[in-house]
Amino acid sequence: MRSARRAALAVATLGVGALALAVASCAGSEVEGAGSTNEPRTIPAANGDAGPDASDGCEGDGDVDACPSRAGACEDEWCPVTTPLDPALGLASVWGSGPSDVWAVGAAGSVLHWDGSAWTAASVGTSQSLYAVWGTGPNDVWIASSPSVIFRKAGAVDGAARWSLAPAIVEAPGARGKVLRALWGTSPSDVWVGGDLFASASSSTRWGLWRSAAAGSGAAWTGTSPRAVSAIWGSGPNDVWIVGGASGELGDAGASSAHTDGALTEEGLLAWTAVDTQSTGTLHAVWGSGPSDVWAVGDFGTIRHGGRGRPRWIAVASPTTKTLRGLWGSAPDDVWAVGDEGTLLHYDGVAWAASTATFPSGTRPRLFGVWGSGPSDVWAVGDGLVLHYSGPKARARGAGR
């Protein structure tokens, strides 16, 4: 009975927080990640209806795609875009190689692709939840789920992406219940993946950050930092930042953050320098325009600014107390952060301010990922939806609708 229930309802962490996943299929593998009371989710009403405003979907700030009379009438900066995604599922991460090649991944093996004109569903062959997507180009895209489930795109066949399993970091059952939340790299042969702490078969040390040591299907993984990792960003192999929560492994208090300049310890491992976050909550995302301009965001609307050589992050005034989960920018004066209850923030080089968005009626979705090809082409993903920003509008700033 317990196994049957698990097959019908998988609960797993998504993005940096956790996502309650309604899984329609019993096929494929499943992450037994621990849920939390802070789980973002899109859940139908208890009676099985779509929710309190499902009768017409056109009250308040209804989804323009659900209201024919509103088609093309989204006046906010961020507008919902039609996708084949089941609204009961969520998306955790978005990345692209350009304006006509964007990938989004999430619950129950959900994979979406944008070709410049429409979002279509794709598949990597699993119903296991997917937490991070990143790549070096259109023919080298990585998707991470768990230590034994990492996919890589290497070209296409008849126009369809060809995906294969990359070598596992740790095979089940050693990896059971562990989640990989972050992907980043400098080249197809230098890929970094981070998440929960776990040990490899050959070591008792629990690592939260792993690095590939070879290209292609022969990629091997080496433990690189004993910290739980929520996000990774760097300007190159000798300038890499990681952020997360207190790992417990190093006695960290509150948020955890570290930087490496590529130097090695006497044991031949990467040397990491802890950076004081001045935060009691987890940092969920990190991004920078260069070595001296790096941002991090997290719980309670926390925003931090730092750079190479600084021993601590600088606290920056935030216009929200909502948890921020995603971060991306195109330049030092064009940075976006997204998070809980539909929070969308923009930094213009001077201050952070809220941006407006149109959401499905009656909802304030949690947003997990943000990525763009440029200042006027930015995507945000979260609880059962995809939002697009195509440039400033008259109703640009202020509290989100």
Explain this structure:
This protein is mainly beta and 401 residues long. The protein has a single domain (59-389), classed as Methylamine Dehydrogenase, Chain H (7 Propeller), CATH 2.130.10. It is 2% helix and 43% strand. The protein has one helix and 30 strands. It has a four-stranded antiparallel beta sheet, with no helix packed on it. Strand 22 and strand 23 form a beta hairpin. The chain starts with a helix and ends in a 12-residue tail after the last strand.
What's the architecture, going by CATH?
A: 7 Propeller
Mean pLDDT reading: 80
Determine the strand fraction and express it as a percent band: 35-45%
Kindly report the name of the CATH homologous superfamily.
YVTN repeat-like/Quinoprotein amine dehydrogenase
CATH topology: Methylamine Dehydrogenase, Chain H
Distance between the termini: 44 Å
Which key features would you list for this structure?
disordered N terminus, 1 helix, Methylamine Dehydrogenase, Chain H, 401 residues, single chain, globular, four-stranded antiparallel β-sheet, mainly beta
Please summarize what this structure is.
A hairpin with a 7-residue loop joins strand 22 and strand 23. This protein is mostly beta strands and 401 residues long.
Strand and helix layout:
Elements: H1 2-8, E1 9-12, E2 19-22, E3 78-80, E4 91-98, E5 101-106, E6 111-114, E7 119-122, E8 132-137, E9 140-146, E10 149-157, E11 160-165, E12 180-187, E13 190-199, E14 206-212, E15 221-225, E16 231-236, E17 239-244, E18 256-260, E19 273-274, E20 283-290, E21 293-298, E22 303-306, E23 314-315, E24 324-331, E25 334-339, E26 343-347, E27 352-354, E28 367-374, E29 377-382, E30 385-389
